[in-house]
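The data are quoted verbatim for reference:
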Amino acid sequence: MSRWSTPEETRGQTEPVVALVALFAVCVGVSLYAGVLSDVTTSLGSERDVAGPTLDRVEHAISTTGILDPVREERALDAGPDGYGLHVSVRADGQRWTAGPTPPEDEATQTASRRVGVRVGSGQIRPGRLQVVVWR
């Protein structure tokens, strides 16, 4: 013969001590995860990438119709991020143009570069490289 159970008998109940132990275990797990995550992000460095966006801004500042004009290179320094040092160099056709102070050797610097078209003379456009070095 089978026994039918009433709805009151089928409800699950948990002892308060067991619920507190489970809550404690979850809190400890979250705390350990947050601690490890904090250590990992600290070891990776908190410096954000400023060289890439600065390269974009510098290229826009010294180019006309997509071609870099080294004569306008001094305008590149205005495109640098606030609170950072900036050195810009353009190389093309065996020539080099630079703007800004020399980057320090003892500090951490960020560098970004890309290939660009450079106006080396009236009506003369040659492939070249634009490079920015940013430091704090």
About this structure: The longest helix spans residues 16-44. Helices lie at 7-10, 16-44, 51-62.
